[in-house]
Design brief:
The protein has 24 helices and 12 strands. Strands 3-4-5-2-1-6 form a 6-stranded mixed β-sheet. Strand 9 and strand 10 form a beta hairpin. Helix 9 runs antiparallel to helix 11 and helix 12 packs parallel to helix 20.
Length: 486
């Protein structure tokens, strides 16, 4: 028998203020509204809550409207047929998301049995006592023991995307996947899962600080074959100068070092984060624009895909692009289509993958050399600099050369200094003349020449040779004369 009676948990549940406010609101007007899924697990483990799943026997859309009307939030229907709605509430900590649905089945037990893992199959009645736990599948014990266990024998086979989710949550919770669940994962076929769902779960994995560990596990379980069919070839490609590691192992090392670099410049940096010589020297150099780097990493892409995920994906796609018969543009194009990515993501990925080793290769750090770098790569240059550092740490971990590392850090520092602190001087100075100004002043017609002249002026501004409108006009006049165009 499955016990759905509320009981006191082994440890108290931690709820943020917004949940306490919801409890006060709903307890007076509703009954039988349950918090379910990861929110209960995180409340039990005292992890931060950024969203909430609520389930109710009926009237889920009415419940959503009731909450929105009280808190003055936003509301939209995710699935009209299944009566699933999303509520977005403003809080002092940022936007809080609540997904509201009707039971998966006849009652609460059916709903919990239909979930993925036992740690996510606990519930709390938000209209009742918030510190009483409903736990028919013993998720509390698995949460304490750090075990990812399927809810039923067909939990994975009925929804194969849960195989990837098991890997992600094992990394998030520092938990092991139990043997029976592992067997189900090995037998799963992701080919039946939509590209959008695979993309979303993959991106959720790639944004983790320990995404390299998750990818390593997923690869061993055979879960990445459907997503990245070339990984076996990468694993077979041994790179002799890297201590006999395969291209795939090196790629995972780059991802791991990139995560360490990201952490070292993040708001979560501690005294121990950059304890190594390599990261310590980098942090000292980059500290002047740490806030700008954090803002860059906080960028989100369509459907709120995190920047960290795009960055890690770029590392994987670059590794694939070096395989025989592959090139960066084709690889990025294929995966953009396969993963249903947007055009803006495609362009950013292509710039990174095509310029992956640009930091190591750049020798011209004159004003024009710096200008040309940023003109070619745009905002992706920030990522190219950080990836270049991560790649050096990965390839040379056995023979780390401090002098070479410091030179590489200095290169990155010079480029980032121009981008973050001298953008209008070094990269995109304010326009002194427009295309119309040039055509009117010199009787020219529209065409490619106008863009060329604007670029000549911009380069003159970068070098300091053009400081005024008169300087710009004289430069155009001299350029036209030198090229017999006037």
């Amino acid at each position: 028998m499955f016990d759905v009676a509320p009981r006191e948990p082994i440890r108290p549940l931690y709820w943020p203020d917004i949940v306490l406010d919801l409890h006060d609101l709903l307890a007076a007007e509703w009954t039988g509204v349950y918090i379910v899924g990861g929110a209960v697990r995180d409340a039990f483990l005292h992890r931060p809550l950024k969203d909430l799943d609520l389930t109710v026997a009926k009237d889920s859309l009415s419940l959503a409207r009731f909450i929105v009307n009280h808190f003055d939030g936003d509301f939209y229907v995710l699935d009209e047929q299944r009566q699933v709605a999303r509520v977005l509430l403003p809080t002092d900590e940022g936007r809080f998301t609540i997904d509201i649905a009707q039971f998966r089945g006849v009652n609460l037990l059916d709903d919990l049995m239909d979930r993925d893992f036992t740690v996510n199959a606990m519930a709390v009645d938000i209209t009742g006592e918030l510190n009483l736990l409903i736990d028919p599948l013993h998720g509390e014990k698995d949460a304490i023991d750090k075990i990812i266990r399927r809810c039923t024998v067909d939990s994975i086979s009925s929804d194969p995307i849960r195989a990837l989710r098991a890997v992600r949550q094992s990394i998030q919770l520092d938990a092991r996947i139990d043997s029976e669940t592992m067997g189900d994962i090995r037998a799963v076929n992701l080919a039946a899962v939509s590209a959008e769902r695979i993309r979303d779960e993959l991106m959720a994995i790639l944004k983790q600080n320990r995404s390299a560990a998750a990818l390593r596990i997923a690869f061993k379980l055979g879960l990445l074959k459907e997503i990245f069919p070339q990984l076996d070839a990468l694993d077979d490609m041994v790179i002799s100068e890297s201590g006999g590691r395969s291209r795939w192992q090196l790629t995972l090392d780059v991802i791991e070092n990139l995560a360490q670099i990201s952490l070292a410049i993040s708001p979560h940096r501690t005294d121990h984060t950059a304890a190594s010589f390599g990261l310590g020297m980098m942090v000292m150099q980059f500290d002047r624009y740490r806030a700008q780097l954090q803002q860059h990493f906080a960028t989100t892409w369509p459907d709120e895909r995190p920047h960290q995920s795009i960055l890690v994906l770029a590392v994987i796609l670059h590794a694939i692009s070096v395989l025989p018969g592959k090139d960066a543009r084709t690889v990025v194009q294929d995966y953009m289509i396969g993963l249903r990515l947007s055009n803006v993501e495609k362009q950013h990925l292509l710039k990174i993958v095509s310029n992956f080793e640009r930091l190591q290769q750049i020798d011209d750090l004159s004003t024009l050399g710096i200008y040309q770098f940023w003109k070619d790569v745009g905002a992706a240059g920030v990522d190219i600099c950080l990836i270049g550092l991560a790649e050096y740490l990965s390839y040379h971990r056995l023979e780390f050369d401090q002098d070479v590392w410091l030179q590489l850090v200095d290169k990155a520092n010079t480029l980032l200094d121009a981008y973050f602190l001298h953008y209008e001087t070094c990269i995109m100075p304010p326009a002194l003349l427009s295309g119309d100004d040039i055509m009117n002043a010199f009787g020219l017609k529209p065409g490619a020449m106008i863009g060329e002249l604007l670029e000549v002026i911009r380069r003159g501004q970068v070098t300091g040779d053009v400081l005024s409108v008169d300087d710009a006009l004289r430069l155009v006049e001299d350029y036209l004369a030198d090229h017999n165009l006037n």
